[in-house]
Amino acid sequence: MSSRPTRRAVLTAALAAPSVAAAWSPFATVLPDAPLLDHRRRPWRFRSEAMAQCPVIALDLIYAGCTSICPLSTRVMAEARSLLGDEAVGPLRYLSLTLDPDADTPERLAEYAAAAGVAEADNWLFLTGTRRDVAAILRALRARFARPDDHAPVFFVGEGRIPRLQQLFAIPPPEELAAELRRLWHGSRG
C-alpha cells in the first residue's frame, strides 16, 4: 500500500482548512551558508547556492520517514509546480530540507523524492547535512527539530537572493501556493 497521499487527500485537506492567503507571515533573516547534500549526492551551500541562485524559492521541512503531513506537503508543492507549468522551471526552486539529518541520507531522500514523483525535477532539491548545519538553518528559519510523530507543517516562500521569506504553519491549497509563487516571481522581475 502506498503512503503517497492521493489527490483526494490533498484536496480534502485543502478544503477543510480556511484560505491561507492572508496567513503568510513575512520575516527577514540571515541564513547560514551551511554545506548540504541533495538527493543526488551533489553538494550545495544553503544560502549562496540553493537559495540565491534562483529569484524565488519554495521550501518545506520534511521527514523522509513521515507518512502523514510530509508527503501531503510535498504533494502540494508538486501540484503547485505542475499548475505553474513552464513558469516552474528556471526562476523557481523548490527545496525540501530534512528535519532528521541523522536518518535522512541522500539515498533515503532520493527514495522519498521518487515516491513523490519529483526525483527528476531539476529545480527541486531534497537536502540533508550534518545535524549541526541543519540546526543552524532551522534556527535562522525560526523552526526547530520535532519528533516525526509530533510535528506541524511549515512552508516558506520568498525571494531567494535577498533572502526575504514568508512563513506559513499550514498546508496551503496547491492553487494558493502557485499563486503566491507567481506573485513573487512577477514582483522579483520588476
UniProtKB/TrEMBL annotation:
Secretion signal, residue range per the UniProt entry: 1-23
SUPFAM superfamilies the record matches: Thioredoxin-like
Residues engaged in binding Cu cation: 66, 70
Keywords: Copper, Disulfide bond, Metal-binding, Signal
One MF term in the entry's GO annotations: metal ion binding
Family statement: Belongs to the SCO1/2 family.
Protein name: Protein SCO1/2
Organism: Belnapia rosea
Biological classification of the source: Bacteria, Pseudomonadati, Pseudomonadota, Alphaproteobacteria, Acetobacterales
